[in-house]
Amino acid sequence: MIPTIRPRRLRATPALRKLTTETRLHPNELVLPLFVREGISEPHPITSMPGVVQHTIDSLRGAVAEAAEAGVGGVMLFGIPEVRDAIGSAADDPAGILNVATRAVVAEAGDSLVVQTDLCLDEFTDHGHCGVLAEPETPGAVAGVDNDATLERYQAMALAQAEAGSALLGLSGMMDGQVAAVRAALDERGFQQTALLAYSAKYASAFYGPFREAVDSQLTGDRRGYQMDPGNRREGLREVELDIAEGADVVMVKPAMSYLDVLADVAATSSVPVWAYQVSGEAAMIEAAAAHGWIDRRRVIEESMLGIKRAGADAILSYFATELAGWIR
Ligand code: PBG
Questions:
Q1: Among 93, 103, 282, 327, which one is least packed by beta carbons within 10 Å?
Q2: How far is Cα 187 from Cα 196, in angstroms, rounded to an integer?
Q3: Where are the domains of the chain?
Q4: Which numbered atom of ligand 1 lies nearest the CA of 121?
């Protein structure tokens, strides 16, 4: 039997492959997460994330300039404060590390890329949870993180971040109603132009492991009381629908590689841009295997990002953003 239909024809030469590829990556759709730590004078390495550091304000500026130079579309800032407390006071303090760093970087970046900030309390609380804890003695209170009390903290944090110049607030706390609460607070204070990125389908994932080291997390236990169950696909769409209805400008699926089905579902139905976050543990697995010589680091990074884009991501947060942007060029 001699086949007449031969898909291999279009794979025969580099020129044909280049012309017929369905998916390609572009630097502008990459976002680089960056960590900035209060009270250090030198960048501090993160053992479980080779090549990623906790920045000083100065080295942060350099990393942002480097990302912009490579054509990266945005940076997402995370702050690590020196002092933590039960309500995460440093988060909405204009002199808090994240807000100070945002101001410094916004001035530096100008229009070259979009400066974004993580809006969550876990880096700022002494218990490491993403919100304030319910008083155990409160009658009827659900044990764990108090949803509605946390919304008030997020509103204060949103105002501080918007005032500092963040263009896009990354709502990563998985509290019910957080998008509507933050939108209302911003609009009331004249920040109608500050956009909201909702981490809508955010799963309670072990792939965040290295991030805990990156932000010196104080968490004991887990976040299953507010982040999603890894077994739930349908619920990812529900969270996305709610966030769009509440005013999210962008929705996100996180982690990326183990949740590509959810990402494809969301991409098929969302009326707003859909982003995905290739998280710390995903990057760490690639780095560890590559360090052993078991995989080709560059090819695996490119393929992993291509897979996330092919599944439906319009933009991708990745610790490889600057490096990948350099290769793409
Ligand atoms: C919450 C937040 C986390 C990550 C991003 N934002 C940690 C968590 O939810 O436990 C994880 C990112 C990563 O692992 O790279 N502030």
A1: 327
A2: 12
A3: 25-135+143-328
A4: 16
Among residues 230, 308, 322, the alpha carbon closest in space to that of 276 is found at 308
**Which CATH topology does 25-135+143-328 take?**
TIM Barrel (3.20.20)
DSSP codes of every residue in 4-68: S--GGGGGSSHHHHHHH-S----GGGEEEEEEEETT-SS-EE-TTSTT-EEEPHHHHHHHHHHHH
Confidence class for position 108, pLDDT limits 50, 70, 90: confident
At 38-69, the pLDDT tens digits run 999 999 999 999 999 999 999 999 999 999 99
Tokens 């006071």 — which residue?
A: 89
Amino acid type, 67: A
User: Residues lining ligand 1, judged by CB closer than 6 Å?
Assistant: 118, 120, 122, 172, 208, 211, 223, 279-280
pLDDT in tens, 112-142: 999 999 999 999 999 999 999 987 766 665 5
